[in-house]
Design brief:
Number of domains: 2
CATH architecture of the largest domain: Orthogonal Bundle
Number of strands: 0
Bound molecules: iron/sulfur cluster
CATH superfamily of the largest domain: Hypothetical protein, domain 2
Distance between the termini: 35 Å
Largest sheet: none
Strand content: under 5%
Radius of gyration: 19 Å
Order of helices and strands: HHHHHHHHHHHH
């Protein structure tokens, strides 16, 4: 286990290593499903992805990025027209407002470029901690652990964290997972959450992680 990981007892280190190793075998190709050509497009796609599927976002952005080619076009967009262009993604009024405001800030403060550090990213309208971490990891390859609903659920079920708040879970994950695996582990947990460890009725019988999963072991001992 890498030096950057908190000193855990040996058994726990081995358990976490086994889980990560199995996830890497299960999902060798795991990465973001959002389609984009540059950090700005990923930023817009990630804002649109709030409470929407990646598949639907990709369908919308395929047309959107042909019509609006960069922050200049989005900053100058008619708000109501943009609302209609992104309507299918849901929460379209708020998302439209944030996309226009963020594009203006990028032009005013960052020469139209997406900043590659967390503190600047979270000042952009519509960009919270999770979105900032997604951008750092996927657009810039900077180690970050974005905690979405799947990552949160799996981190707790698999015993990476007992915390009940997103920031606490993120901190535990970054202490227990080697930094070199943060970006991949985020994608592995999402894939596993969609495939087997679903919010309702997780398919534990088919899960290769069950022998190392506290949630599964707890359910067995209570039977
Ligand atoms: S054993 Fe069940 S609860 Fe544990 S990770 Fe697998 S599917 Fe999720």
């Amino acid at each position: 286990m890498a030096k950057d990981v908190e000193k855990l007892d040996k058994k726990e280190q081995e358990r976490i290593s086994r889980i990560l190793s199995k996830l890497s075998e299960l999902y060798p190709e795991a990465g973001t499903a959002l389609k984009y050509n540059n950090p700005f497009e990923l930023l817009i796609a990630t804002i649109l992805a709030a409470q929407c599927t990646d598949k639907r976002v990709n369908k919308v952005t395929e047309k959107l990025f042909k019509k609006y080619k960069g922050p200049e076009d989005f900053a100058a967009a008619d708000r109501q027209e943009l609302e209609q262009d992104i309507r299918e993604c849901g929460l379209f009024r708020n998302k439209s407002k944030n996309i226009i405001a963020t594009s203006k800030v990028l032009l005013e403060k960052y020469d139209g470029e997406v900043p590659s550090n967390f503190d600047d990213l979270v000042t952009l309208p519509g960009v919270g901690r999770k979105t900032a971490n997604v951008i750092l990891a996927n657009a810039f390859g900077i180690p970050a652990f974005a905690v979405d609903t799947h990552v949160y659920r799996l981190a707790r079920r698999l015993g990476f964290s007992q915390k009940k708040d997103v920031l606490g879970v993120e901190k535990d994950l970054t202490r227990k997972v080697p930094k070199s695996l943060w970006i991949k582990a985020h994608h592995w947990l999402i894939r596993h959450g969609r495939n087997l460890c679903r919010a309702r009725n997780p398919m534990c019988d088919k899960c290769p992680l069950k022998e190392d999963c506290p949630e599964f072991l707890k359910s067995q001992s209570s039977q």
